[in-house]
Amino acid sequence: MIAETAMLLMVEGPAPGKRIFMDQPVLLIGRDERCDIVIAERQVSRHHASITLEDDSHVVRDLGSKNGTFVNGQELDGPRALQDGDEIQIAYCCKLAFVGADATAPVILEEPEQGLRLDVESKRVWVAGQELAPPLSLAQYRLLGLLYQEPGRVYSRDQVVEAVWPEDDREGISEQAIDALARRLRERLAEVDPETQYVVTVRGHGFRLENAVR
After folding, report:
1. CA-CA to 13 of 20 to 30 Å: which in 5, 36, 38, 68?
2. DSSP conformation letters of 54-97
3. Residue 17: pLDDT band by 50, 70, 90 thresholds?
4. Strands across the sheet with 7-12, in order?
5. Of residues 200, 28, 195, 29, the one with CA closest to residue 128
6. For 102, phi and psi rounded to 5 degrees?
7. Cβ atoms of residues 60 and 76 within 8 Å
8. What confidence tens digit (pLDDT) does each residue in 50-83 have?
């Protein structure tokens, strides 16, 4: 549906192109996982900045962060009402563009992005629209990359060993090690989306990937 609502567009950061609709009175930005916009970078403070709705204006504030919050290149030293097109920079690692509710182009509300997406060239992984950070370990990525080749297909344990540990003696890789790797991968994906099942163990056969987005 079409709605007159302000939004933030992530220009640089953990999920470039992501849109955050500002349909709540307070939006918290920071490194803490409970923030509305989580930026898992060391230079970002746990509670870095906030944007509040005040008298029909969206006002951005720095929350005493170590590396500062900037609007259009100027560091904030107090509250500032946002205007359409303003660029908010969080420390030195994330840029957000503010799109006002009265912008010329209508904003189309979409369902939140679902599923798992993997970029083979950059080896980046997105879960439910959020990039996985920190990145997966090499073994975890190799297992996910194998399953992502054909989502829904069951890959045998021998195929997993060949893909994940190509340099090692395969007879030295126990089933417990394979199961432990699959469990750790599930735990990493569940950090972002605990409600969706992605890596499925097919008892007696191997593993398959569900809810993948190509």
Report:
1. 5
2. ETTEEEEEE-S-SS-EEETTEE-SS-EE--TT-EEEETTTEEEE
3. confident
4. 19-21, 7-12, 94-99, 87-90, 69-71, 74-75
5. 195
6. -100, 20
7. yes
8. 999 998 899 999 999 999 999 999 999 999 999 9
Tens digits of residue pLDDT in 141-160: 999 999 999 999 999 999 99
Pairing of strands 57-62, 49-54: antiparallel
pTM over 0.70: no
Q: What's the token pair of residue 2?
A: 């079409």
Q: Which two structure tokens, joined as six digits, stand for 210? A: 């569900």
Contacts of 207 (CB under 8 A, 6+ apart): 143, 147, 154, 155, 160, 182, 199, 200, 201
Task: Write the DSSP symbol of residue 43.
Answer: T
Residue 171 in tokens: 């007879």
CA–CA separation, 90 and 69 (whole Å)? 5
